[in-house]
Amino acid sequence: MLDTETKRRIDTARDILVGKVPDPKSQVEQITIALIYKFMDDMDAESEELGGKRKFFAGEFARYGWAKLMRSGLGGHEILKLYAEAITKMPENPGIPPLFRAIFKNAYLPYRDPETLRAFLKIIGEFEYDHSERLGDAFEYLLSVLDSQGDAGQFRTPRHIIDFIVAIVDPKKNEAILDPACGTAGFLISSYKHILRANTDANGDSTLTPDDKGRLAKNFKGYDISPDMVRLSLVNLYLHGFTDPHIDEYDTLTSEDKWNELADVILANPPFMSPKGGIKPHKRFSVQSKRSEVLFVDYMAEHLTPGGRAGIIVPEGIIFQSQNAYKQLRQMLVEEYLVAVVSLPAGVFNPYSGVKTSVLILDKTIAKQSDTIAFFKIENDGFGLGAQRRAIEKNDLPQVAAELAEYLAKLRAREPLEELQPTLGLIVAKEKIAANGEYNLSGERYRERVASTSTYPLVPVRRFMKEGVKTVDPRNTPDELFELWSIPAFDAGRTELLRGGEIGSQKKLVAPGDVLLSRIIPHIRRGWVVRENADGRRQLASTEWIVFASDEVVPEFLRQVLISDFFHVPFMQTITGVGGSLSRANPAAVGEIQIPLPPLDVQKEIVAEIEGYQEEIRNYELQITKCREKITKAVSKVWDGDED
Fold first, then answer.
1. How many whole angstroms separate alpha carbon 365 and alpha carbon 380?
2. End-to-end Cα, the chain, rounded Å
3. Euclidean distance between CA atoms 181 and 35, whole angstroms
4. Which of 87, 94, 281, 569 to pair with 613, CA 20 to 30 A apart?
């Protein structure tokens, strides 16, 4: 567990840097470099105490030792010059091992304020080097501040999600383990801890032999395209006991140098984003594509040993996109590798992305002998799905892990699955998945819904989508007053009245009775009905609305259906994109969702019933407001001295 004093020091170091180094990743890098610098000096001091010699700060590098850097009487500008020079020259130091030279590669001081550096080094000086788990946990806490998207589409994977995936894949002590997009090495460290726990006796003592430990050190490998991530991975592994971690700066998708290296276990959360123009990979992939998520999944599947297993976090595009490369990849997975799909909630990567993801579980041995794939859905992961991600009681992860483990155990034992009925999942025949050639990996598609027992006919919602919706550029009539049905207007509870010159882009032209449904993350489950306006103004809607209009359906009834829980579940399966404002529902996929269609008179009765409930809600809200006013008045008597 992270102790409070170490946490305080890390927080203080960040607070000192934030004025000069506002970017969290750069703060982490500066603290990392400084800690390693201090730790090398600590190891030299320990060596001297034991009768040995200094090796890190020896020869011409002796003048950079910590004591000389922090000696009294040294001016602020002298400290700055000495430290900046030291970290820049450290890769040339013959007394440090290749690991440390890699950590200091391209290191530099991004600011030139002596007082900031003096205060920063003072707090770093309070840290003392050891190999304890405490310091490893401290570094993991430091890495947790990386709450922003990386330049290549990286996202910091929450620790509990990593541990969940590792537990399912269950790496063993004698297996080669790889993360080809390793970031800060979270999957590798979780796997290492998993193996240590699995090889402990009843007294809590390790059962690993020296040979086992030596083999473990060689079995963990990681690649990353970013030198900054490589540096952080090296330190993270080093602080968890890896004296010679194997992390390489390597472009997994465009380089062939490591193509022939296989692994028994592959675990990764690869980048979701492809650069403009796409990836330009080499030609050895089975699936030809320029999309990074397609290529990474292909790479990991193809680089498993014959008995290999993998756990891969993927964006929803992999699950149901209709382009040929996606379908070809899914077909390959279903036929040769895939055993389970776990759907994660859309807020797992908050606050820096609302992207919807799933986890693919691959197992080459049992995939080929099984004719089924299991689908599980996680609604809650133990944390709220808003920006703050506060801890909550609801957590589906343990139950899904248990049910999935039982499913995999039965497959390995070749036991019948008839009596296996997961409460948070379903088991689907591969034949059914392959039936239409799409190989769709959305479990909801294969679930027999309660709605299918409706006494009313089921119809695809595309039946009500308005065709030929015209667009206008309001800037062409800058003085015209428009009524704008925008997402900010929805949140405010009223439409906006704006001149054409105040509206910045092309809009959809809508009419009274049209039903609007937002298709963009994070503004989902917003929908309203366009109303008449007395002045006959033209009415516009954001292009992020899907527009519905039909004589077969009462507008308010359709709106209620579209924002209901029943519609929301399949609607979320149509989300594509890389997160934030780039995640949107695909209208064509939305159109395939089926809803019950009662007669018009029944629709009107349902609308009237809902309006009655809404009126009750408004009355209750009014009572709550009045009660709060009374509470405020009662408290104010204390302050005002009013006893009446």
1. 31
2. 55
3. 25
4. 569
Query: For the chain, what percent of residues have pLDDT higher than 90?
Result: 46
The one-letter code for the residue type at 613 is: Y
Q: What pLDDT score was predicted for residue 151?
A: 40
pLDDT higher at 407 or 128 = 407
CA distance 309 to 557: 48
* Superfamily in which the 150-447 domain is placed by CATH: Vaccinia Virus protein VP39 (3.40.50.150)
Provide the pLDDT confidence category of residue 179 given band limits of 50, 70 and 90: very high
Q: pTM surpassing 0.70? A: no
Q: Which residue has the higher pLDDT, 235 or 57?
A: 57
Q: Which CATH architecture has domain 4-133?
A: Up-down Bundle (1.20)
User: Around 38, how many Cα atoms within 13 Å sit in the side-chain half-sphere?
Assistant: 18
The size of the chain, in residues, is: 644
The pLDDT value given to residue 61: 93
Residue 319 belongs to what H/E stretch? helix 316-320
Which tokens belong to 606? 């349902």
Q: Which of 10, 229, 299 is nearest to 126 (CA)?
A: 10
Burial environment of residue 614 by CB neighbours within 10 A (0 to 12, 13 to 18, 19 or more): exposed
Q: Say if CB 310 and CB 265 are below 8 A apart.
A: yes
Question: Which CATH code for domain 462-598?
Answer: 3.90.220.20
Q: Angle at CA 26, nearest 5°, toward 24 and 30?
A: 120
Mean residue pLDDT across the chain:
86
CA distances for 583 relative to 47, 73, 263, 350, 519, angstroms: 55, 57, 33, 13, 9
- What is the mean pLDDT of the segment spanning 598-617? 87
